[in-house]
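Changelog entry: the Folylpolyglutamate synthase record was regenerated in this release. Current contents:
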Amino acid sequence: MMVCMWSAWRRGSVFAARLAKRDWPCSFSAGLSVRYRDFSTKTAPNIPGMEYQDAICTLNTLQTNASALEQVRRERCLPQLQLQAMRGFLERAGLTVEELDHLNIIHVTGTKGKGSTCAFTEQMLRSYGFRTGFYSSPHLVQVRERIRINGQPIGKELFTKYFWQVYGRLDETKDAHGGMMPAYFRFLTILAFHVFLQEKVDLAVIEVGIGGAYDCTNIIRRPWVCGVSSLGIDHTQILGDTIEKIAWQKGGIFKPGVPAFTVKQPEDAMVMLRSRAKEMRSPLRVCPDLEEYQTDCGSLVLGLAGQHQRSNASLALQLSHTWLQKRCLPETSFPSTSDENTEVLQGAVFTPSPIMVKGLADTEWAGRNQTLRHGAVTYFLDGAHTMRSMKACVHWFRETASQHERNSSGAVARVLLFNATGERDSAAMLKLLVPCQFDFAVFCPNITEAMASCNADQQNFNVSVENMLTRCLDNERSWHLHNSQVSNKGSQLLIEDSLPKKTTTTDTLVFPCILSALQWITQGRDPVLTDPVLPVKPSINAKAAPLCDASEIHILIAGSLHLVGGALKHLDAANYK
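Regenerated structure tokens:
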């Protein structure tokens, strides 16, 4: 069933009434019906011939079904129930925690950089010839990106096959368990374990979802090694509002006798990690700076851009080195954490092998400090969504964009495409972006396109369109405030006939989807964006003169991994078929 978005907005809310009085840059009438697919939340039957999209649409019901939402509400009050519930779902799916011991797991948590650390680690160990499994979140474009074998997302056929195996077992047993089905992330974690066991991987690199202590990945009993990347403030409603509380959660993945490594942390965080390691009797080490590793080929080169990736690479080296020691030298012992030994040890400085050196250089991790050049348009994509990661993003963008501009044959227009979700302080992040001197700041929700042709992978039923658009308007208002451009006349975008005169070098617009924003920003100059162009009002098109006149257009896409993923669906479609 297709639902007109404009009609959905107008249903009984003050916000909808406010929108009805305003104009959007893309017309919602005059022959254009902007729509979003309303995927049914009814479970698809498990019958022969079920296709990938059937599996994805059924998976999406786990975002919305009443039992899954009740789980989330109940477990926020009693988080210790999460692992108990996870164990029950795992057993209903036909798996046991004992089987997970055979996956030779590397378990990684952190606030920022845990995904990049996992990517470095997986690439290095795969370069040794090991068959690797890699579970990460969130996905950028397709959900099967979360579950990788040998660095590649599992194919649609494989995903579909294993999905129905796991879903079928859970569905068959739900009546005996009060109709309970696992929520979305919990199901995908079970599915990943099932895939890795069935595909007989030599090791599995498992990225924690949120936190650590009560994260559903922490059902793992005997990882081979654990890692903690950079800690900061995020997910405060779940993890706590201080660095100590967050570090307590992250240190919950430590296991008795299992070596653990951390990058250098703020003092309060390090004290808590040390306490947790002592409590869990896990030997904890701090990684050396990347410059301390000695190689025969000079400085280590990383496949991922950004200064902040250096600590992630050092952590990955320690994790890989320790895993290889256990694999090849199983008698290797690590000092225990006793009551007398409360100091955090320093990680060993060793000479990375040529395979490790090449692995670090070959690592790719889409959507993080990624640059794509399409003719006269260059995209700088980074899913930064915390204050710390946005500071790193700004440093990377200013440095990298300046290099590109020095090689430009003429004037360059800079554009920000931004969105933020959840409890993130988007106003504070936008303030960090002001010094980048953008010519335009463009805002849109994490909706890939106006006509979502069964794009179920990127559906989010937990946030309404109204809320998403409200957030965009709030972000635009914050940008104006940061640029000392407070106006009582309303949004420049929404009031076509009374646009205030431009008083700064940055103009702002809000679009209803990612594709419409990209089409307007690029003004037909990106040969990859071949979709039919949504009609845009003349007054909005008139604003685009600087984009048309510029020799090149540089676009920073940041604030949300989901925003970056939606952009990549259009900009790098060949890699997301």
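The CA atoms of residues 247 and 570 lie 38 Å apart.
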